[in-house]
Amino acid sequence: MKKLCILLFVFSLVYLSCKKDEDAPGEIYGKWKLTETMNDPGDGSGKYIKVKGDPKYLTVDRSGKMSGDAVPDLHSLKIIDSVRIEVINSNAKEPLVYRYKVSASSLTLHPPCIEGCGIRFVRN
After folding, report:
1. What is the pLDDT at residue 3?
2. What are the angstrom distances between the C-alpha of 14 and each of 8, 31, 109, 110?
3. What pLDDT digit, counting tens, does each position of 52-92 carry?
4. CB crowding 48-79: b at 16 or more within 10 Å, else e
């Protein structure tokens, strides 16, 4: 019985260590495909809506340069910490601070909005 308990314990450790974690940290660098956008009218009712039409992309290289047609006014970024980036935007005189969440397969950007807003991507 003792051997069976040890075997089950070892098996469970192996299983849990091999299980893929969807929220595992990833890198913001790479090519991202735009999938959803959200703009809240200010009453908390905003929901993410799937993007239709031709695919649009955002590319972030290791130097921080941003390019692509998904958010064409973004030029570069600097990572502040694990949840904030500083973005150079062609429409703003000063850098803007965006909140972000990145995993191995997804990226969500939250520009500075009075009401809620967001942009979601999947790794391409």
Report:
1. 47
2. 10, 33, 35, 37
3. 999 999 999 999 999 999 999 999 999 999 999 999 998 88
4. eeebeeeebebebeeebebbbebbeebebbee
